[in-house]
Design goal:
- By secondary structure, this protein is an alpha/beta fold.
- The protein has 3 domains: 194 residues, FAD/NAD(P)-binding domain, CATH 3.50.50.60; 111 residues, FAD/NAD(P)-binding domain; 105 residues, Enolase-like, domain 1, CATH 3.30.390.
- The chain has 16 helices and 21 strands.
- Strands 1, 2, 3, 4, 5, 6 and 16 form a 7-stranded mixed β-sheet that branches. Strands 17-18-21-20-19 form a 5-stranded antiparallel β-sheet, sandwiched between helices. Strands 10-9-8-14 form a 4-stranded parallel β-sheet, covered by helices on one side.
- Strand 17 and strand 18 form a beta hairpin.
């Protein structure tokens, strides 16, 4: 350490102040540990400003408009399309105009210290702040952060732009630019076929863009059930989206405010803007992981206690996208709660702070598979929603993933539109419900729902999967009438109950 170099010491240092880092810091701090959180951008992170919240704010008006048009009596009141300026203004409210003052106040009230800037590991439990010209509020460069007990890495992920000649130079959008845009392009070419690509194809079509989606493979949403992907594809085409499969961008060039994309199938596509949605990678390349014997740029492999594998001393933890285990905010926050609780249980007494709870350290050491100190839901019960139209909500294993895992499963499926609650909700309601059943144990191991507001059906399925509730007991969980949830009765009947 250099003479006069500032040293800041805390029991726990959390790197990354997004939703995941905030949850880890909060849970560790509840045990009386002193906690600092480090952030080089906005407190609240990707979800608050460039992902979950703004994207759903962009999608919701179109969904509401479609819902109104599906109900006679309300449809007659719909006399126009979306007010684009109003949609963007409402989006800006959800991002608080990209101002994190409110999030900073929450940290202050929670007793969590905020350190502005970028950091690199220099050794076990030690990091140093490095230059970041984009962060004028950063601590002095060279300031050392020392964690007396633990470090939690929650730096999230960053978009991947494929190495297509000219693509970076053409200044494409990633999800960040797409969710924070101040205006709507007349035409938009989207490269990718996953959740981000499909959601933003819907959002920008609703807002008036002519959208083309270029998919390298032969289907959309390749991690979800094929029937759900097919329904989303059909809906995108009905909305006017040009969906092309088996095609890749081979070269791009921007001139006079438009981008020309050369295609692997021959010909070109010209668009006002290109959006790249081809995946994300863990944000670890600049963390100095080499000082810990870890590979920069790689995911941080963790066990179910969220402790990083391959680092001696049991002091390094990670949660969220940076681990490669999950790719949703809600599941990352779950992992963060586990990490924070484990840190609190292991280190609060050692730090001379109040225990996190009676026998917390002993409980953590003896943690079973469904203990609050183990993130076991990551293996078999991850929920996800694609806020497309129709929405797709899924939890647990797809049929193919279950078979790949060696399970002998069968599926039961039912058209949601045939239940009374769906008929009341919308004329011509279209959607599908499917359960993946493990008959050897008599439990649900996976579920998928499609249709308007299908996300609201998901938590019941999540509970069934996590609780491993026997099917013969689920039979006694009577759905209210007339609701869309009545589809659960039809699914259980199809299962033979």
């Amino acid at each position: 350490m250099n003479a006069g170099q500032q040293v800041l010491e805390y029991d726990v240092v959390v790197v990354g102040a997004g939703a995941v880092g905030e949850n880890a810091a909060d849970r560790a701090g509840r045990a009386g540990l002193s906690v600092a959180i480090v952030e080089d951008e906005l407190v609240g992170g990707e979800c608050s400003y460039w992902a979950c919240m703004p994207s759903k704010a962009l999608l919701r008006p179109g969904a509401v408009l479609a819902a109104a048009r599906a109900v006679p009596g309300a449809s007659e009141a719909v006399t126009g399309g979306l007010d684009v300026a109003a949609v963007l203004a409402r989006r800006d409210k959800f991002t608080t105009d990209w101002d994190d003052a409110g999030q900073v106040r929450w940290l202050e009230k929670s007793g969590i210290a905020l350190v502005r800037g970028r950091v690199r590991f220099t050794g076990p439990r030690e990091l140093v702040l490095v230059p970041d010209p984009a962060s004028p509020e950063a601590e002095p460069v060279g300031t050392v952060l020392r964690a007396r007990r633990a470090v939690v890495v929650a730096t999230g992920s960053e978009p991947v732009i494929p190495p297509v000649p000219g693509l970076i130079e053409s200044e494409p959008w990633t999800s960040r630019e797409a969710t924070s845009a101040e205006s709507v392009p007349g035409s938009l070419a989207i490269i990718g076929g996953g959740v981000v690509a499909c959601e933003l194809a819907v959002a920008y079509t609703d807002l008036g863009s002519a959208v083309t989606v270029l998919v390298r493979g032969d289907r959309l949403l390749d991690r979800m059930e094929p029937f759900a992907a097919q329904e989303v594809e059909e809906s995108l085409v009905e909305l006017g989206v040009d969906v092309r499969f088996g095609v890749e961008a081979t070269r791009a060039a921007r001139e006079d405010g438009r981008t020309t994309v050369e295609l692997s199938t021959g010909g070109t596509l010209v668009a006002d803007q290109v959006l790249v949605a081809t995946g994300r990678r863990p944000r670890t390349s600049e963390l100095g992981l080499e000082a810990l014997g870890l590979e920069p740029g790689a995911a941080l492999t963790v066990d179910d206690a969220m402790e990083v594998v391959g680092v001696d001393g049991g002091w390094l933890f990670a949660a969220g996208d940076v681990t490669g285990r999950t790719a949703t905010t809600h599941q990352g926050k779950y992992d963060a709660r586990v990490a924070g609780d484990v840190v609190a249980a292991r280190f609060s007494q050692a730090a001379g702070a109040p225990d996190a709870g009676s026998g917390a350290a002993e409980a953590e050491r003896a943690a079973g598979p469904w203990s609050r100190y183990r993130a076991t839901a990551d293996h078999a019960a991850v929920p996800q929603v694609a806020f497309t139209r129709p929405e797709v909500s899924t939890v647990g294993l797809t049929e193919q993933a279950a078979r790949d895992a060696g399970l002998r499963v069968r599926t039961v499926r039912h058209a949601i539109g045939s239940v009374s609650g769906a008929a009341v909700a919308a004329d011509g309601y279209r959607g599908t419900a499917q359960l993946v059943l493990d008959d050897a144990r008599g439990v649900v191991v996976g579920a998928t729902f499609t249709g308007p507001d299908a996300a609201e059906l998901l938590h019941a399925a999540t509970i069934a999967v996590v609780a491993e509730a026997p099917l013969d007991r689920l039979w006694h969980a009577v759905p209210s009438y007339p609701t869309v949830s009545e589809v659960w009765l039809r699914l259980l009947e199809a299962a033979g109950l």
